[in-house]
Specification:
With 482 residues, this protein is an alpha+beta fold. Helices cover 32% and strands 23% of the residues. It has 13 helices and 21 strands. The chain has a seven-stranded mixed sheet with strand order 6-5-15-16-17-14-18. It has a five-stranded parallel sheet with strand order 8-2-1-12-20. β5 and β6 form a beta hairpin. α1 runs parallel beside α4, α8 packs antiparallel against α9 and α10 packs across α11. The longest helix has 24 residues. The N and C termini lie far apart (47 Å).
């Protein structure tokens, strides 16, 4: 519950995950929070215009899922009630890395997992839980920011325009830009005379093509995530494929390629592109599934980091989520990074209160620290793809870091201890330093403890689905992946 003694007011611009989760983090420290969004926010898990990324596959890793549960207790149960899948990792994942196939190690109590669900369901559930737990949070749909109130020294509110064209000045102690890659806060700041904030951009030219499929009989529940990764070290454009089980007995399928190897919006060519990936298992599975809807393309994939944490900005302004640091979505860290950043904002609010002169400055630095892991993981791969656009070519430090990560990944495909630590970092449970220990260095140098797999390890039921056989007549117990 929020502190009734606090009368601080925060306005969050953007009602997607980064905005609503930040509102949840600020709620215990605010007397009032207003979340504005240009869209009409649906009361059920339905698509909306301002969330185009919902038409692509999303995976919420356990690091982000745990952060969301801490912010909004009960959110896991709400997702599950509406058909979301809780998928154990690595047992519930067919993952083909540049170094080979990961084993599906079976742990009785796996500490890593992923939530498989559509973004429409994810976002709706977060909005529901936010307003249920924090009645002093108000959602104002069909509302857009016009200008910031204040000057270069401090922001004291925002003028907004409603759907009928009327405007209103919302006085506030804090303005949060959660407008995603559009980052409208930058333009609002420039209108106050604030210099443009420096940014770093690493663009591998990735294009996404996504489509929903009705899962074949026997694959509607307890189905693994399929992840076919590209190999940036081979000097050729990369292709990536992801199949995520979601609600309603469906799969979300996203195929992507770096510059020079792009999928198209042609439905007839969708499965042909899947056949160009480093292994045919995704294409073979799609032959057994039924397409639902059209193919959707996206080119909103560059890694862009706006250095708000290093800029001289007015007090009372904060940017979160993709508005501050947007990473290539192929690595699946956007939602988890936003959730962990929201937790960090909440910690600063608990220390200083929203009305502290330096609150926004401290919060900007905390957000940047939390986003660093996702940024490093994404750009550390993308910078090596053919045709990448980056501030500079990979240097000696980049190559050394890449060599070490690849050596660890090679060890992880055949070493349970290494894969656990590696997954800790990939799922944003632990910082990157978790991988730089004497034991991990030795493991990286030694490589995998067991021979590499020649292909994906499938349970009998999964193999039956792949073969087009009757999965019901097949043993359905989990494989060990060993």
């Amino acid at each position: 519950m929020h502190d009734p003694r606090s009368s601080a007011h925060a306005v969050v611009i953007g009602g997607s995950l980064a905005g609503t989760l930040t509102a949840a983090a600020l709620a215990p420290h605010s007397g009032r929070i207003t979340v504005i969004d240009r869209d009409v926010l649906p009361d059920t898990p339905l698509p909306r215009r301002g969330l185009p990324q919902a038409r692509h596959a999303h995976v919420l890793w356990s690091g982000g899922a745990r952060a969301m549960e801490a912010l909004l207790p009960g959110i896991h149960d709400l997702w599950r009630e509406h058909g979301a899948h809780r998928i154990p990792i690595p047992q519930g994942m067919l993952s083909f890395a540049p170094s080979g196939w990961f084993r599906r190690w079976h742990d009785e109590h796996p500490r890593h997992y992923a939530i498989g669900a559509g973004r429409d369901l994810m976002d709706w559930a977060v909005r529901q839980q936010l307003t249920r737990l924090h009645p002093h949070v108000t959602l104002r749909p069909a509302c857009t920011p016009v200008r910031l109130l204040g000057d270069r020294r401090g922001v004291r509110g925002v003028e907004v325009r409603d759907h009928d064209g009327g405007t209103e000045a919302l006085e506030a102690d804090l303005i949060v830009d959660a407008t995603g890659r559009a980052a409208v806060g930058g333009a609002l700041l420039r209108a106050l005379g604030v210099p443009e904030v420096a940014e770093t951009r690493v663009d591998a030219g990735v294009v996404y093509a996504s489509r929903r499929y009705r899962a074949p009989a026997g694959a509607e529940r307890d189905w693994p995530i399929v992840s076919l990764q590209a190999d940036p070290s081979n000097g050729r454009p990369g292709g990536i494929g992801t199949i995520v089980p979601v609600e309603s007995g469906e799969w979300f399928v996203s195929l992507s390629g770096t510059r020079g190897h792009h999928p198209t919006g042609d439905a007839a060519a969708f499965e042909d592109f899947a056949r160009t990936l480093r292994h045919p298992v995704a294409a073979d599975l799609l032959r057994r599934a039924e397409p639902v809807g059209d193919v959707t393309l996206s080119r909103s994939t560059p890694n862009v980091r706006r250095h708000y944490d290093k800029a001289r900005l007015p007090a009372g302004f904060l940017a979160v989520g993709d508005a501050a640091t947007a990473c290539n979505p192929v690595y699946g860290h956007g939602m988890s990074s936003a959730a962990r950043s929201a937790l960090a904002v909440g910690r600063v609010a608990a220390e200083t209160g929203l009305r502290h002169r330096d609150f926004a400055k401290r919060a900007r630095k905390a957000v940047a620290r939390e986003a660093s892991a996702a940024w490093t993981l994404a750009t550390g791969q993308d910078i090596f793809f053919t045709g990448v656009e980056a501030p500079a070519p990979p240097g000696a430090a980049d190559r050394a870091a890449s060599w070490y990560v690849n050596a660890l990944m090679n060890a992880a495909i055949g070493n349970h201890d290494v894969v656990q630590r590696f997954t800790d970092v990939m799922m944003l449970e632990e910082p990157a330093g978790h991988l730089v220990t004497p034991g991990m260095v030795v493991a990286a140098l030694r490589g995998p403890r067991v021979p590499k797999l020649g292909g994906p390890v499938l349970t009998p039921r999964e193999q039956a689905v792949l073969d087009g056989a009757d999965p019901v007549a097949t043993h359905t117990g989990p494989g060990t992946g060993g």
